[in-house]
Structures are given as structure tokens and as C-alpha cells.
Amino acid sequence: MSDSQEVRAGVVTSYKDAPNRTVAAGGVTFAYRDLGPRSGVPVIFFNHLAGVLDNWDPRVVDGFAARHRVITFDNRGVGASTGSTPRTIQEMAKDAVTFIRALGFDRVDIHGFSMGGMIAQVVVEREPQLVRKLILTGTGPAGGEGIKNVTRLSNLDTVRALFTLQDPKQFLFFTRTANGRRAGKEFLARLKERTRDRDKAIRLGAYRAQLKAIRRWGVQRPHDLSGISQPVLVANGEADRMVPTQNSVDLARRVQNGELVLYPDAGHGGIFQFHQEFVKTALEFLERK
């Protein structure tokens, strides 16, 4: 661990300094990082397609961790976590609950981004008493508009990235405007701030399994979300190509206590492009009585 000022009184306050930890449960050794104050309800971050621990924007994690305990983790078969990657969102949700219970928590807040937001919806449906508040970003409901096309878009933009020597997330997460291009470059630079003890990259087989899970989610019959009574903050860019923004509007409308934030000239990674605004809104939401 770094001996920088970002570690105060034994509490890690910066994501780049958070040590890699593991916990064994359900036949899986889960890799995770844990930072922020030890009191209060922890916020568990559920990751996106192909995302490992190092794919979380440190500005978002650090912003949350300034006032809340934050835990990020690799689901089964992803990054440094062991096991075989599930091919359904429902199985991923079961693993997420197993991980949360293994850490001894019986009440958590969840921030689910993209695929992580799909997993979070299943967790709150199956284990309503476990979840206090829910933040869903860049995501959509089962059977949502255009979700079944994520595989095609991901493959297309991966090829575009190879031909232009860029990271696929520059195309998948951000608009092609001047603002979007600049925000993408800044985001990708932030992901490199951690220089040691980095996570393992996702394996091709795990990535393909996740794509299958997302496609299955996209062609499912819509779930009845009216039973979700927890406060839900939904956020996205106004021009999301991966999980079309209309899905965010739909989510916020269908839950009992939903509120919606859309960021201008922003795509799938709107919460990273507008990380300062998003963190401020999320903290106010989490701390509201």
C-alpha cells in the first residue's frame, strides 16, 4: 500500500492505493478492493461488460469514498476472481449476493453501471431487504430497447478502435463530438493512474459469456419493476449508443421512487465525463433521509 497522504489513519481514501483483497465463498475466490470510512452503509459497485477492478474511474470511486465505504469486486471468472463466468445476468446476481454476504453485510447500497446495473436490478428483486438504495447508470431493464445489439456494437467499435489505434471505450462510452473525444481521453488516462498491483485483464471466454448474458437480458420479457420500492437514482448520457438512453428514462419511470439525470453531449460513459456532477448528485441521493 502507498504511504501517501491518500491513506489516513489506516483508512484508504484513494482508489489507486486500495490494496487487492480476496474472500472465498460459494466455491469462488472473489477479488475486491475496499476503501473509505468504516461506518455507515457500504456502497457496492457492480461493474460493466469486460470491466475489472481497474476499469472504475478513480474520480468516481474516490468521490464516493470521501464520505462512504466503497467496495468494488470482480464477479466470478472475471479479472482475479476464480471460477467460470456465468452466461446469465441472474447467475451473476446470485454471485454478487454471495460476495456481499461473505463480507458480512446485511444492508448495502448498490451502484450498478451498464451490465452491473442489470445485475443490480435482479439483486434488489430477489433480496429486497439487502438493498437500501440503488444507483443505476448507463443501464436498462430486461427486454429494453436495443440491449440485444450490444454484441454487434461492441464488435464494430472494437474493430474501429483497432484500425485507429484507440481504446474501444473511446467509441463505446463517449460521443464523437469534440467534448466527447476529450472526455474519453481524460477518462482513459485516469484509468492508468494506478501503476502497481493492477488487476488481471478479462479473458476472452469470460467476455463472450458476458455478451451472451447481456443478449439474453435484452430479449427477455420485461420484468415488473413496480415492486422495487427503494429509492433509485438513474443516470446516463443523453446519447448512449450501447444501452440507448430511452432505457434510463424507462427505468426511472417504472420503479416506485425513481429519479433521472441525463448529461448533455454524453454517451454511455456520461457519469465519467461528468464525474464531478455525478458524484455530487449521488452523494446527495445517498445521504438524503
Automatic annotation (TrEMBL):
GO MF term (any one): hydrolase activity
Domain AB hydrolase-1: 42-272
InterPro entries: AB_hydrolase, AB_hydrolase_1, AB_hydrolase_fold
Hydrolase is among the record's keywords: yes
UniProt keywords, alphabetically: Hydrolase
Highest taxon of source: Bacteria
PANTHER family noted in UniProt: AB HYDROLASE-1 DOMAIN-CONTAINING PROTEIN, HYDROLASE, ALPHA/BETA FOLD FAMILY PROTEIN
Protein's recorded name: Alpha/beta hydrolase
Organism of this sequence: Streptomyces diastatochromogenes
